[in-house]
């Protein structure tokens, strides 16, 4: 009994310190004075150094050797602690430090290169990051597949081969749907006008409330790139405002409410344990996506939102709720992943997945990356990339070493598809509530079936228990074909 | 060379973590969702536990044994690290934990007792705090005076006997001045009206800018009790708003700008070292007070402020700058220390100093504290305390174990008096600049002579070097007699 108690008490403090580090990151992106950058970097380094020491503390190995968990939750906690300890212990301290130093620099180099449309300024640094990440993957994989070792950090138990099979099954139907839409005569009208920041923020708060965001355990601020931050009793969201495009603010907000509500919905008994957080990036994204897309961009909620926005902005250039529903679901050609609609988004992910898998395996070198990106984009989207900032330089992920992260976005969409089908079957009257600006019946179902479990179940098991079936792309594809077929009269 | 470098590198990380803890405290008082209290308490406990372990790390003792400082700054850093290490090491871990647990509880018990005007609900807890603080003082004092051991934590090198002598020298002239003022025929008019929050905040920002607050390394938020937080590149202020009393907001802001500017004014080379913070509570208070009182409530700045406030609030019930100057310096009878004017403030401190010294020495028991307080207040102020919330329950300090802290407020006033006289002699045209809403010539003198040195010099030496004379209450008393004599026509 002593070993398990000591282990969990030690972990409790580590979880608290890790939560502090996350709060510090929030501060930096929202309220920190701009002159405090160097100081914050030293503060973050100090707390990360404490965290690294704790995660590789040899006492964890000793406790694990004799730990005797007394419940399912304790057993799963021990598994997760062991997994992190083994991953962290396999990476030499020298490599961990080099990666930390390089990725803190390389993000700035990437940002400058993107601003200057100059990939050659960034690719040598990316190559260094890639070499270190391959070294890290080799240390963790211990003879296994390098990409799988990286992917497992974001999506426990998932392999590159499984993702590849999933994407192969999805691609033909997505490509076909995309082509039909772009060939269709229907062209939903874009929203135009000037939409003052203050009104957008007020509407965003109303939408967050409609999605049952718990303001007593959260808050909303403005950030350059929207994110959510924190867990248990304190999960905050951020949004951004573009005064020509209020959907940016509103749908970013609903998306982040999905992420934050997942963290806030976890069983409070799991706070300060490894179960007290979203179980994987894919499941996390399933929550943000089902809030934003299946609900937020659904016909019922769009009808409610149309009236709220018409009132707030004194009329819109969109005639009625049906036209508005088509507007929030417009499909147009575009280079940028983060601006993509529900149909094309997954195609953006698939090309990144294939490219990064080849980079990690060594089949593709960074020297050939720009050509490979551009050729693949032309093949998948039928348009030539006009400039690197719209191509290979658009995403921050690789610059900070996030290889294996991209596929979890599409996996989140697949999970959201499965969950949405099950939820529609299980809860009658969802659309009536959403049409009245009330997502709470849906949120309650998600909380009960997904969110409250935190890290207790493995990701795939969690979704399968919630939906009563295997994880499959079929519900997502059927949903997209039905929804966009109707909007575009296909 | 290795020992000193290792010691300073270790300290650097400790300083960074301590800065993180302070930032977390700021978050709690300003932006934290109200439902996150328990979580924050566990996060704070985790980081304080890491800090306590580092402050008593046995390696510090080993490094100190062989440390060979290479400069005056390094030598002083080593002294300060040794001082903290010795203090922390002398306190048994069991006692430190009991004190931490008790004082986190007792603050709430005090707040409830004050709200209910029920001293008996609080005094048993205060007695427990007192017993633990005496035990702590005995451990640190190692045979020396208990009160001195506590005082030294806030004001290095100062003793209770020195404070007592200083206060004895001040009391008669303060009492005489107070009586003459209250007997005078002059009665400055109070400011009355309704002053909207938004306008007050805008004015407060203008005042902070007038006092050269560096907004690139700071920010201002609203808090229940105004405070400043942080150092080096990030020192934030808070203020409060009472819509019937804009002076509360404005002078709180100027006061906190004094504290924050001290931290921001320290030589950047001292960041992340023990020299990188205000050297004592007394010196800290000297900066907040000279900003707020000698400058902020001086005739020159008051004239400028009169016009700013008249414009912002569309006229005031005060006729002209001279009357306004008298209004911001009104002396009226009152029970509450934090609301006291410059003349009576120090009398509030003197009675607390005598009472807490007797509590620590055992000459006074908590059973007799209410009677002792009320008797002393009647003697010093000529008025009977009407209820405990206006008497012994008014201050938070003792509930959280801050014995030895009160006298540093009056010491700050004494230091401010000395600094003000030297500054007036050294810098011509201060009042002309203040009359134009520009405190920067004064701030520059303070930065050069006080703030930039951080912890390099001991408190008294710092003030004496800055003023070219001994620390004495004479300049403060002469300033008060001259200023209030003129306002009240004495």
UniProtKB/TrEMBL annotation, chains A, B:
Could you tell me which Gene3D superfamilies the record lists for this protein?
Answer: 1.10.1370.30
Active site, renumbered: 256
Q: What class of enzyme is it?
A: hydrolase
Q: Which UniProt keywords apply?
A: Carboxypeptidase, Hydrolase, Metal-binding, Metalloprotease, Protease, Zinc
Write one Pfam family the protein is assigned to: Peptidase_M32
- Cofactors that this protein relies on: Zn(2+)
Catalytic activity line of the entry: Release of a C-terminal amino acid with broad specificity, except for -Pro
What does the cofactor field's note say?
Binds 1 zinc ion per subunit.
What residues does Zn(2+) bind to? 255, 259, 285
Q: Which GO terms describe its biological process?
A: proteolysis
Q: Sorted alphabetically, which InterPro entries does this protein's record hold?
A: Peptidase_M32_Taq
| EC number of the protein | 3.4.17.19
Q: Which GO terms describe its molecular function?
A: metal ion binding; metallocarboxypeptidase activity
Q: Which family does it belong to?
A: Belongs to the peptidase M32 family.
Q: What does this protein do?
A: Broad specificity carboxypetidase that releases amino acids sequentially from the C-terminus, including neutral, aromatic, polar and basic residues.
Q: What is this protein called?
A: Metal-dependent carboxypeptidase
Provenance organism = Paracoccus sediminis
